[in-house]
């Protein structure tokens, strides 16, 4: 009895060491693609900041040269006999010629890179349009490759998690056949249920975030996310505005008056 006790202790120690080694291997295998994705994210954000700041500076320079907002406001006051519909159109033109900041430039370049194009910001100067066109021609294909690479990182992380799950629950034959249909651990099939759950988790977090930050309803947040994920970008909802714009309110009042 006493002779077998050291063997049992050694066996338990070896088992603990093996588990720790497997855990370290899993963590390192997950951190490697995650670090790669983070490095690509840093490069992308640097690109967006640089190009966005450049476009904002070009737009501000052109706007200052073309339009003085005070003179335009005086012009509207002197022509107060305009109809309400015409006044809304003039306000819309004026709102497009307000000054940009770096944040708005980054927002615009992101909408270019992701091919969403919400329509909230658009360049009105020739220099801004030229830079936007060159940016689209050069970096939109790179953005597509980045999204593909990011999806492969997600797939790699999920695959390694499934392999670890199979090793821990090797007694479950049904789970093994679901993840490894051919019995080959080099070919991992990610169940559609897991992909659906991951997508739903992302949507729920984003909906809660938009409801808190933008003061939207859950339905409005879901509508905005669907138009964003599908890269449609209708433009009727966009971040950064808690309420309707001035022109939208005037349009609503005009329609109600009629």
UniProtKB/TrEMBL annotation:
Residue stretches in coiled coil: none
GO cellular component, one term: plasma membrane
Membrane-spanning ranges: 34-56, 130-148, 187-213
InterPro entries for the chain: 2pore_dom_K_chnl (IPR003280), K_chnl_dom (IPR013099)
Keywords linked to the UniProt accession: Ion channel, Ion transport, Membrane, Transmembrane, Transmembrane helix, Transport
One of the Pfam families matching this protein, by short name: Ion_trans_2
GO terms for biological process, alphabetical: stabilization of membrane potential
Bilayer topology: Multi-pass membrane protein
Classification via PANTHER family: POTASSIUM CHANNEL, SUBFAMILY K, TWIK FAMILY OF POTASSIUM CHANNELS PROTEIN 18
Protein name: Potassium channel domain-containing protein
The organism of origin for this protein: Macrostomum lignano
Origin organism lineage: Eukaryota, Metazoa, Spiralia, Lophotrochozoa, Platyhelminthes
């Amino acid at each position: 009895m006493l002779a077998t006790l050291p063997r049992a202790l050694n066996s338990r120690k070896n088992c603990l060491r093996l588990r720790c080694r497997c855990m370290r291997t899993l963590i390192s295998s997950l951190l490697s693609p995650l670090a790669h994705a983070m490095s690509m994210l840093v490069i992308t954000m640097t690109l967006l900041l640089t190009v966005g700041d450049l476009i904002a500076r070009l737009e501000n320079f052109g706007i200052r040269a073309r339009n003085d907002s005070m003179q335009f406001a005086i012009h509207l006051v002197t022509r107060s006999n305009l109809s309400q519909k015409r006044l809304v159109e003039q306000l819309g033109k004026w709102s497009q010629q307000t000054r940009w900041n770096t944040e708005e430039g980054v927002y615009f370049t992101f909408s270019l890179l992701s091919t969403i194009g919400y329509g909230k910001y658009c360049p009105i100067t020739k220099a801004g349009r030229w830079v936007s066109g060159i940016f689209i021609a050069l970096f939109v294909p790179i953005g597509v490759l980045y999204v593909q690479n990011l999806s492969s990182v997600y797939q790699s992380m999920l695959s390694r998690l499934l392999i670890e799950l199979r090793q821990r629950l090797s007694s479950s034959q049904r789970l093994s056949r679901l993840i490894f249909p051919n019995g080959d651990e080099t070919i991992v099939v990610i169940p559609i249920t897991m992909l659906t759950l991951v997508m739903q988790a992302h949507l729920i977090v984003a909906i809660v975030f938009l409801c808190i930050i933008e003061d939207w309803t859950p339905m409005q947040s879901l509508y905005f996310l669907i138009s964003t994920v599908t890269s449609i970008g209708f433009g009727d909802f966009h971040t950064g505005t808690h309420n309707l714009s001035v022109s939208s309110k005037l349009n609503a009042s005009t329609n109600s008056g009629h």
